[in-house]
Amino acid sequence: MDVAELLVSSPAVVVDDVSMTYSVISSEQRADIPKDIFGRALTRIRHRRPTVAVDALHRMSLIAQHGECIGVIGRNGSGKSTLMRLISGQESPTTGSVLATSTPIALGVSAALVPDMSGEANVMLGCLAMGLGRAEIDAKFSSIVELSALGKAIHLPMKSYSSGMASRLRFAIAAAVDPEILILDEALNTGDAEFGERTRARMTELREQAGCVFLVSHSMSSIRDLATRVIWLDKGEMLHDGDTERVVTLYEKFIWYLRRDDQASAEKIRRAARREMTRVEVTERAAGRRRWK
Amino acid sequence: MSQYDPLVPAPTPTPVNIRLLQRVGSRPKFLDYLVTLWDYRHFVYYDSRARVMSGNSQDRLGGAWLLLTPLLNGAVYYLIFGILLGTGRGIENFISYLIIGLFLFQYSTRSISTSARSMISNRNVLQAFRFPRATLPIAVNVREALSSVPTLIVMLLLIILIPPVEVISVKWLFLILVVGLQSLFHLGISLIMARVVGFVPDVAHLLGFGLRAWLYFSAVFFSVDRFADNPWIMAMMNANPMFIVLDIARDCLIYDTWPSMVRWLTLCTWALASLSVGIVFFWRAEERYGRG
Fold first, then answer.
1. Where in chain A is the domain with CATH 3.40.50.300?
2. Which of A17, A247, B146, B165 would you call most buried, defined as having the most Cβ atoms within 10 angstroms of its Cβ?
3. B1 in contact with chain A, both atoms CB, cutoff 8 A
């Protein structure tokens, strides 16, 4: 315990009792919505549209240290991207809070820019929006353009780009900063072979510079290679948080059972993972009121 | 779920040193916010300049519409109010009177209505990057200020060219001051509207009516003298910041008189009050723009 206490003394990222519930509009007919036209109009105005609450993430806590590369794995819809959006501050959690030493940067997830402006102008604007200074941008400009591999198309308005070109440019812009806390989504690593090679190179560079990395990936081989610790999310719940080899092994077994449609065995693994995991409950070291709430 | 599984171990309380940590995406303290805004001045400038160029690119005549809109408006108002209804009777140099009103009012209208939608139209940029959100409405205002320079020059040329010819005097320099105060005033209103419309987009529809009513109420094409015997309307007119802007501008440009000190003081108060209320009001919702 004492050793653990020393280790967590000043972490890079603390996710404290965070949960996320979206309320989304549903097209499903519900009993509590009046059928007549006036009742409907009234519910609309009172902002009670037919919504349902979706629990994207159940309450979870985690502490990330400097120097860690945390792999995040799970099936589609398990809450990986939600957790990453919460960590990077793009959304705020329904309960709990995310604390970090500096703002974590998510790499080029949806940096759609201004379609009417040229690629060049978008590079400038994006860099300025990320808080880079004029001198820094001048120094990096050519390498951004090079990474985007757009060639002369950089002078054309962004609305004329193919979706592949646009995402290349977004990645190149987002990758221009060297963040201390970095969130990488390997689903990004698409595009043609030539660009894939460059992205990989730049990602490696960024990962090596960053103090703390969250790596979202479906590729167990890259998780095994890179992650020092792995978090397994399933249906919005944190099933495990621990040693890479152990979690990946459990996950692979789980997927194997699911492929064979053996729900009972898969469920057994889920339960085993849950029991094995050491949960944390974040408390402030200096006793007193939690200031950040 | 896990809560019901008796075999799941209870969480270990883990003490954390939060001194070096800050809440992700939290809004900075007000003064820090102002400092960050200053740090992002290049962003503001670049954004506004780039959009001045791409702003009218959809239209064939491009930037010419900045001039054509108030001119055509002026022609319509001149026909209806000046000739048909005769509201301009008794106003010395009615055409210039009308032109000053329309050109200056259009500048505020454009700034307010474009920046009101800035939190909606820039949702992509808001979600992609973390930067002080107030930079966007400010950038819109800077852009409108930049593109108002040529339009105001045309306004002055029209005043000089259309008979009765006006003499250029030192008082014309006061136009810069009054337009400056006007810009600060509508920047504050822009920030307020940007927050309101950002969360309740429906208000954007009402805003159009509101601005139009304001235009009619600001003595753009009639003289306030017709209300001289109604102290209530006169008091409201004298407090209306946009009317004061137009009044000062007309005094300086066409009537060659010194605007009264009361007018200047009222306008300064409006500008400062609107700007400070606007920026605080906008900053208080800083964390929530561009979500959901």
1. 2-19+60-107+178-276
2. A247
3. yes
Asked if residue B184 belongs to a domain, the reply is yes
Q: What fold is seen in the domain A2-19+60-107+178-276? A: Rossmann fold (3.40.50)
CB contact under 8 A, A100 and B22: yes
pTM for this entry? 0.80
ipTM of the complex: 0.74
Element holding A42 (H helix, E strand): helix A37-45
For A203-207, what is the mean pLDDT?
79
Nearest chain B residue to A278 by CA distance is: B11
CA distance A17 to chain B (A): 11
Q: Cβ B40–A131 below 8 Å, yes or no?
A: yes
Give buried/exposed letters for B17-37 (b at 16+ CB in 10 A, else e). Answer: ebeebebbbbbeeeeebeeeb
Nearest CA in chain A to B1: A237
- For the stretch A220-252, pLDDT in tens is 888 888 888 999 999 889 999 989 999 999 999
How many CB atoms neighbour CB A280 within 10 A? 22
Count of the separate structural domains present in chain B: 1
- Contact, A232 vs A242, CB < 8 A? no
- Chain A residues with CB under 8 Å of B131 CB are 129-131
Q: Is the pLDDT confidence value at A94 over 80?
A: yes
